[in-house]
Every structure is written in structure tokens, then in C-alpha cells.
Design goal:
By secondary structure, the protein is of the alpha+beta class. 36% of the residues lie in helices and 25% in strands. It has a six-stranded antiparallel sheet with strand order 3-2-1-6-5-4, with helices on both faces. The longest helix is centred in the N-terminal third of the chain and has 18 residues, at 15-32.
Amino acid sequence: MVMLNTYAPPQADTKQQQYNVLLQQIRDIIYNENDLVANLGNIAAILHQGMNFSWTGFYFVKNEELILGPFQGPAARTRIRKEEGICGTAFSKECTVMVEDVEEYVGHVSLSEYDKSEIAVPAYSRGEVSLILNINSHHLHNFTELDKRNLQQVMHLIEEVL
């Protein structure tokens, strides 16, 4: 019988220390399992629970649109067009998009009326965006440069296995 490793949310003094623990857990997952979908499911759970986000998930790039992948949180849109909303903008501009107040973002695609801030981080394969990490928060101004750097590090780890 195979035992599942349980990844408990980190008990750390600072947000960076929390991310350090989460990044190590994510490394352990990636280096011990080669199934991408299984890994993305666990990574979404680790980030979601570890940082107490309201929605955490991945979108795969397929045929110039984003298709919902593994996620944690309420049901979500299954398809997002390139340039549509925050995820589609991260896809089309090929960069991280961080929004402090989604109500002020023209074209925001709402998952929940309670979501207040959002970040979308791309991962690249063969020089092109192939995956988007999308995270929502019920708090205004929840995402900082610290979050951006650490979530980009998560995506760099995933890029190693894309």
C-alpha cells in the first residue's frame, strides 16, 4: 500500500518563511512524481491551504485559449479566451499580471463576488506560455512583490517538468 504524504500548512513567522516551506513541499512533489496533472493538483492544494487563498488553480494553453486544469475552490470557468480577464491577459502578454482591486480591472472575469484581488503567473515550455497559475483572494491588495516572486518560483519549478 502506498502512503500519501500529508502536507500541512506551514507554521511560520513570516510570509517568506511560509513560502519557503511550501516551495520545499512542491519540490518534493515534483521530484517524486512524474505525472503533471497529479502534481498540479497537489501544488494547487498546497498553495491554497498554505496561504489561505480563495481560489487556486491552473489553466492549460490549448489552441490559443485557456482550459481549466486542477484547482482548489469553488467551480470556475472552463475556458478563457486569450486577452480575456486577468488570466487571458497574462497569456497574451506572456507575463505575470497582479491586480490589487479586481473591481478596477477593465474586463475582469469574476468567479465570485467576494474576490477582491488576483494574480496570474505563466509557465513556459519551448519558449511559449503553456500554463497559467491563477490565484484569487477575498482581500484587497492581498498580493505583493513577495507573492509574485515566490509564485514565479513555483512556476519555474513546474517548467522543469513541462
